[in-house]
Amino acid sequence: MRGVICAGPPTSGKTTVLKHVIRKLLKEGFKLAYLKVDVQYADEDGLFKAEFGIPVKKVYSGELCPDHCNVMVLGDAVEWAEEEQADFLIVETAGLCFRCSPYIEGALGIVVLEATSGMNLPRKIGPMLSLADLAVVTKIDLVSQAEREVFRARILETSPGMNVVETNALYGIGVDRILKSIKASPELKHPMYLKGNPPVGTCTICVGKKEIGWRQHFGVLRPLEGDMFYRGE
Fold first, then answer.
1. Does 218 share its domain with 152?
2. What are the pLDDT digits (tens) for 216-230?
3. Start-to-end C-alpha separation, the chain
4. What are the C-alpha distances in Å from 64 to residues 69, 78, 206, 233?
5. Is residue 191 part of a domain?
6. Are residues 73 and 108 part of one domain?
7. Which candidate among 28, 40, 180, 200 keeps its CA 20 to 30 Å from the CA of 220?
8. Is residue 194 part of a domain?
């Protein structure tokens, strides 16, 4: 079985892109399973189940960071998809934490970016872009040719050598190139590992300490003026 992890900022067009991808994969006879990870609301699983009749699951991360939640549940999700005899497990993440990266080694990482989100977006989203295997740019019909070229250049500036696909996801234009990358992806192998390094450690804020100011915390700290340092056991 092969894995596809689709990330990107909210409203970038992830679900619309995946609809076209799933429709084409099913037409070619592949069996699919779909997992949606979100924070507090999502209905994509129901839509995909109704339209395509594929096995679906949904996980709400709640108070847990959605990308951390993705890491926690992905092992079980792979086992579930294998039990469903799926050829591909397609995971759609919440896409809220730009410092984290939801991608794993051996799975195809797709980041979906909308061309209307501003020329500097590729410079802002860090590992979500730089650790992806494929960047899909949506809503290209809503910007000028010059803006498209600058946006593409900013992607390649952040991640040299990135495979960039420009698409009008509403009509499925450019989806065949995405499909080609998906079908060429390798089989998942165990044990599975995150691609790249996660953010620095668990901090006291993550575990519920609410006081403001670095002097009130321990672990990896950072003042306004100065570098990060560690304090505590």
1. no
2. 888 878 887 888 788
3. 43
4. 6, 20, 9, 24
5. no
6. yes
7. 40
8. no
